[in-house]
Every structure is written in C-alpha cells, then in structure tokens.
Design brief:
Its EC number is 3.4.11.14. Belongs to the peptidase M1 family. By secondary structure, this protein is α+β, with helices and mostly antiparallel strands. Helices cover about 30% and strands about 30% of the residues. It folds into 3 domains: about 230 residues, Immunoglobulin-like (Sandwich), CATH 2.60.40.1730; about 240 residues, Orthogonal Bundle (Neutral Protease, domain 2), CATH 1.10.390.10; about 140 residues, Immunoglobulin-like (Sandwich). α2 packs across α4, α5 runs parallel beside α14 and α12 runs antiparallel to α13. Bound molecules: ligand BES and zinc ion. Zinc ion binds next to α3 and α4.
Length: about 700
Amino acid sequence: MFLLLSRTVSLSVVHRVTCSCPSTPSKAILVSSVLIKLARKICVSHSSASGQNTGTMPERRPFVRLPTDVYPVNYGLCLKPDLIDFTFEGKLEALVEVTQSTNQIVMNCADIDIITASFAPEGGDEINATGFNYQNEDEKVTLSFPTALQKGSGMLKIDFVGELNDKMKGFYRSKYTTPAGEVRYAAVTQFEATDARRAFPCWDEPAIKATFDITLIVPKDRVALSNMNVIDKKPYPEDENLVEVKFAPTPIMSTYLVAFVIGEYHHVESQSSDGVTVRVYTPVGKAEQGKFALEVATKTLPFYKDYFSVPYPLPKIDLIAIADFAAGAMENWGLVTYRETALLIDPKNSCSSSKQWVALVVGHELAHQWFGNLVTMEWWTHLWLNEGFASWIEYLCVDHCFPEYDIWTQFVSADYTRALDLDALDSSHPIEVDVGHPSEVDEIFDAISYSKGASVIRMLHNYIGDEDFRKGMNAYLLKFQHKNASTEDLWSCLEQASGKPIAAVMGSWTKQMGFPIIAVDEEQVSDDRVLKISQKKFCASGLHDGEDCPSWMVPISICTSNDPTCTKLKLLLEKPETSVTVRGVGPDQWIKVNPGTVGFYRIQYSSSMLKNVLPGIRDLSLQPVDRLGLQNDLFSLLHKQADMQEEKNRIERVLGAIPAPELIQKVLCFRRCSGSSWDGRGCGSPGCWSSHHRF
Ligand code: BES
Ligand code: ZN
C-alpha cells in the first residue's frame, strides 16, 4: 500500500466568513490555511485507502473511480485570485444529488486546502463536516459528516484556498511584460486531463457532467473571462479596487472543459454568420495580430454547424493567447486557450506556413466544441478518438475555408507519412489503449493517437463516403449531445448510416499496432486486368512472416490512367489475399492502388506495374499526394529490400524531371526531418512546415 499523506482537520480551529459572492473566505482563512499546510507536512500517517495502518512497503494500488452515491448537478463557484501573493480563495456551493444514504462525500481535490465544509439537505438543517481526509496520492478528499446524508438533493458548501501555481496546470499564474517593460501576472487555467481538482474540489471525471455558475472577483482594471458571457458586473463591497463578475450558467459539461482567465488583454471582435460572437484576445497592443484567427474562427463555426447539422450551443466563443502555455491549445468550451504562436499572426512578418498552422489549430479546437465538448468521451480510453477526429477534421475545415492552401497535401506529407514511419517500429502501440489511472493519459498523447488516429479516420471517411459519414456523425451528435459516448457508440452510428461493418473494420486498425503492406501484381486477361492483392504486417525491421501474422480489414480503392483522380473499383480486403478483376482496362492503361493516398498502408507493386505507372508521374496526371505516396512507399521499402534500388532510382529520376521544385523540396525536407532523430520538430530549414507541428 502507498504511504498516504493524510490529515484530519478539526473544524473548531477554522472560522467561517461571509461575503457577497455568495461568500468568499477572507485573509483570516488564508492564515489558517498556512497553519493547515504546516499540519499537513507534520501529520504523515501510514494508512491505506480504507484508513487502516499497514506499515508495509508501498505498492501500486489499482485506480478506483469516484463513488456514485453523491453526484453534482450544479457548481456555484466563486474564485478570488490574488495576482500579487499568487493565492486564491474559493467558495463552492454545489447542488448535489445523494443516491444512497451515506455519511461521507468523496471528491477530487489536489493542492487545495479546505477551510470549512457543510451539507444542507433540501429544506433541512445544515450539517458541518467533521473531518476532511486527504488521500493525496489519489488526489481525493473524503468529507465526513456526523450523521448520514439521506437520499435526495442537497447543497454542499466548501470554502477553500489554493496557490496560483507556476506549473502551467490547474489555476496558474502566467508572466507577461507590459509594453512599458513592467513584469506582471495573469491567472489562467489548464484543466485537461485531470487538473480542475487543483482549482476547486470537484468530481473530476469526464462522465460526471454538471452545470456551472461561475463568479470571479478580480481587480477592476483586468479582463475576466470564463466559458460563458458576463451577466453581471458590480463593485465588490469589501474592496473598492475589485469587481465581482458573474457569468451565465453553462450547459451541462465536464470539469476538464471549465476555464477562467484574469489578465490584461486587447481584443478584436466579430459575429459569425450563424450569430455567435467571436473574440480573439491578444497581449496588450497586439490586437492586430488576432485578426487572422478571427477570420478563421468566423469561417469555421458555420462550417461545423453545417457539417454536423448541429448549431454551436453557446452565445459566444473567445480565443485567447496565453503567454505561458504548456500545450499548443486547449478547447475549453467557449473560452479556447492557445500558446501565442498558435493564434497570433503578425500581418507584416508571418509566412504562409504560420497562417496554415494557426488555421489548423483553430479548426482543431473549434471541432472539439462539438466533438468532445457537446458529446464527451466516457473515459480517457477514448481520448484518441477525440484527438484523432479533431486532427482529421481540422484539415477538412481548412480545406473548405482556404482551398488555396492545398492543405491535404500537407496532411499526407506531415501526419500520414509520419504515422506510417512511427507505426512501423516495434516500439509502436495500438491507438486504442486502456487507460486506468488518469496519469496514464499523458503517456498516450503522442503522434500515434493524433496522426495515426487522424489517418485512420480519413481512411474511414473515404470508405464510408461523405454523405453517409455526415449522416452518421449527425445521428451520433444528436443521440449523445450533453452526454458521454464511447468509440463503439460512434462506430455503431456510422454503421447504421452506411450499412457497412464499421466496428469490425475499425477495430482491426485501432486495437492492434502497425499496418499492412499490400502487395499487388497484375495480369491482362482480354479487356480486363486481374489483380492479385495480398497483405502482410509491415515492419521497419523486416517483413512479418509466419503463422501469427496479424491482418487488417483493408478498404482498398483502385484507379486507372483513364481518370487517375477517380476511383474505378472499391473492395474490402478481409483475408491474407484475394484476386479482383478490374473490367474494361486495355493493355495500354496503367493501374494505381490507393488514389488520394487515403488508405493507411504501404503498397508494393510488382516491377511491371510500377514501370507502367511511371508515365502518370511524368505527365503529372497523378496528383501530388499520389506521387508523394508512391515515392514514400518506395523509400520505406528500400530500408530492407536492396532489390528495390532499381525502382527507387527510376522514381527519383522521374521526380527529378518534374518541373515542381516545391514538391521535391517537400520530399527532401520530409526525409531530412524524419530521417534524423524522429523528434518531429522539423529540420529547421526556412519554410519547413513540420517545424510548426505538434510533437
Ligand atoms: N485537448 C488538447 C490539448 C490537451 C490534450 C491538453 C491532453 C492536455 C492534455 C487539444 O485539443 C490539442 O489537441 N491541442 C494540440 C494542438 C492541436 C492543434 C493538435 C496541442 O496542444 O498540441
Ligand atoms: Zn485536440
């Protein structure tokens, strides 16, 4: 069992204070909190989760989710940050439902000191908690009551204090310099995956949704933002320098999507065609640099509304650049936070790759407003779907809003080829992995969940077709809106809409690591072409052979030189090998598999097929993504197969003959970046797009 750092505070040593919002702890409470912190340091007991002393060596305890006997319906939350002392005072008034009589309430809580806690059943007398037992390892607190809380509604009140930390998680401080050179701090939040519990005691699991009424008490010259619009702003009675800002109630939502920001910002504002107020907040004096993101966001919101056939459910959305920010961006509902380089564009000094990056990040986070925020994953196991889906649809959105970017070519040269390269290594892992303890979440946030996730969803979209895909998405969002869902729920909606075996197909791509190499050979039989197609696991360390070779359900499309952009035949390869006849293909025509480079696999053509397809490369009738895909497959095969050298030379000669220097540049840059240390930060050469990338 773990050595638990636990303590029980006698309520007789702390005082309750009243204030207006609904009531806020005063400095007196802060003093007692310092004493409590000292007490916490001294009072270390060896106890198990059940409170028993063990005295044995620590061992890994299985993770247990929160009990369901008490759950929140509404959080009335008032926070008063101190931007000088880096502390905050908080008051929670949570409307809760007791489903089973109990004299304990277990919640998440980390680095927070509870001052007082009480429970008042509806229409009954308030009962003070007699102890707070912190299970620090589990980031939980158990509030104990002298009598049992009966089934029904009640109000749980907790006064607490915490630190505005410098760890870029929870409620933290972010340093900035004013135009006059003065160093100041903003207070900001980053809650995903499990850091809301550092800002207020809560049920910090994605499936435990509730509404939030948030109030912030802030210096009157600071901007205060939260998920919803401001509904009231009034002077704070106890301090004339402060104001009390009250926000509209949120829809029912998960704790990891709650956010607040208090600081000095300028903003630009617009209205999207579907009536949503969009603002982009920038550092003071840099509002101009928010204009591009504002244009992207106002175009993006109506795109998603139309694509999902579900309107954006909040009246406003703010996008804000935060000076100190750990992730690239975070999709908090109605208040999306970004690191500055992912949001700001200096019109005089930014290159087009920076604009593309901002467009993609904005497209990604706004997609989450539906996929993730409105419908939320049931548990962190399904996070890959949240991120993989947003990482795919961001490209669909940018392609729609800025067709001149030719952004899908970037997808293939960045996400797709990168995912194939990484997933071919023995050190790869399945996209879908069971997450127990939320601390495992960080481990699975890698290029496999993002880039392979996005690539298999792109393949799925192509397999289903846009119309049925949208139908299924709409059914999924309507069925699970304001609720939680799992990966299987999405597959079943898409299965219903398309009549195709989506769960079985997708399971083969998400539950096992790696991907196949598809070998293709052809034979001319009068006016038809007969293709022999087989699959084997592709490994960077050599082909996987033998009995236990995994296999995939592989959607395959085929095109011919008649129209290289149009699929002539589709099939689903469900076994190790098959034959298929492509009718009406004369001996002078060539055949290419995987037009658009959408299937997540590599292709090994027979020598003669490869030779035949060369004119399609030379005369540019094959799209750039197809030429890139062919070349990339050949490069990867070269690692193990020396006899492919001849094919590689041929392709390189042909690519060298293409009057498209930017494509060659892209291919060379890709090789440089990915061939070095696999850190994904790009080769550093000017214009290397992947230097903006996420990993
Ligand atoms: N939800 C994530 C950010 C996140 C994930 C924060 C997990 C904490 C834990 C967000 O939607 C995201 O994916 N951000 C990306 C940028 C995006 C454009 C790919 C990031 O931060 O790298
Ligand atoms: Zn995301």
